Each structure stands twice: as C-alpha cells, then as structure tokens.
Amino acid sequence: MTTFDILFEDDWLVAINKPSGILVHRTGISEDTVFVLQLLRNQLGRRVYPIHRLDRGTSGVLLFGKTQEGASEMGAVFREKTVSKEYAGIVRGFIDEAGVIDHPIVDYPGAEGQQAVTVYRRLAQTELAAAVGRYATARYSLVSISPETGRWRQIRKHFSHLRHPIIGDKKHGDLHHNKYFSESLGISRLLLHARELSFTHPFSNQPIVIVSPWDEIFAKAVALFEG
Questions:
Q1: Could you give the number of structural domains in the chain?
Q2: How far apart are CA 192 and CA 173, in angstroms?
Q3: What is the domain extent for residue 38?
Q4: Is 5 annotated as catalytic?
Q5: What is the pTM of this model?
Q6: 161, CA 20 to 30 Å: which among 29, 94, 118, 207?
C-alpha cells in the first residue's frame, strides 16, 4: 500500500510530502483511479479534507484538514493570502538573477485573464555539453519561486511566458529539453517541487513552517548545479 511521509500533524491539520505523478483528488477530465485523498484516508484511517492542491507532476508540501473545521479555518488563511509558499524549480536557460512575473493567467481560450503574480530568485545555473537545440551547449537555472496568487498552473504558465519553461512540463514546456532530461539523464518528472509552506496556525496562533525534502530524481537534477 502506498504511504506518504507525514511532514506535520496535529489535531486539526496534516501535511504530507506529495510524490510527483499522482493527482490530489478525482477530476472530470482524468481517468485516474488512484488519488492522494483516498490513499491518505486509508493511511490515517480517517477522513481528510483538501485545503489546496498541487498539479499531478508537482511534488512537495500538501496540506489537509483532519476535520471540516480545520479545513475551513485553514482555507480562510489561504484566502487571506497570509500563507507563504516557496517552490524549487529547474528551468531552461540562464534566467535573470531575480524578478517578478506579473502576467494574467487564462484558463482556457477565450476566457478572461486573471491577475497572477510570481516572484522568483535564481539559486544556481549550469551549462551542459549537450547540443539539445540549435546551440552547442544546454543552459539551465535552479530557481526559488514564490507565487503571490494561486491560479491554475500559474508557475508553469508564467515561466513558459518568460521563455524559461519548467523542465519536464509536457503541456507548457520544451519537448526537446524534456526528452534530453528523460533519455540522456534519466530524469523524467516535472522539475517543480513545493519546498516550504509557512503560516500562522488558525487555532494555536503559532507560526508553522513545513519543509519538504525532494525525492531522489529531483535531487539528481539539482546535482547538475553542483561543482
């Protein structure tokens, strides 16, 4: 049976380290039969209530309510935008040292764009001796990402808009670089990880910081920036 690493738990909330490749809950556009929600219920032997979500390919900190009250109160904290979220991502190219992406997100063609803001900071960059595209080498950046809004696929869409797409993003990314990572480096997941979630607990009023370690595959990608 699949079990998740518990990163935080008390009477009201539980946070897990979500693996890449699994949906949080059932959707009308997916034929998946296994979801985080049902697996976590089985693991804990009780109902849990989703508070936020991560894309199928994104790993990292995922928070649930252990009671409806816990989910409701924590959901209000999210809506008040007092939750700090930090992601780690690997993108194509040498990105600027830091920046703010303020660009509306469109959920589907013809829809009205919704305001979306993402702040990022470059942590490292590397150049590999691989002619993936039209250049003799391939450049990548490791970035710390803090979304200030929570639109659907916001981070992935924003970095695609900058022409620095997240590696492993099949929908908004670069197929040639995705293929290089998968076939030549053995790294075939979306390289986006929800690293840290911090907030003031709605019941205890204590500051909570939940940090999630990345998996072996993501660590293999991060190792490309060392040395």
A1: 1
A2: 12
A3: 5-225
A4: no
A5: 0.94
A6: 29
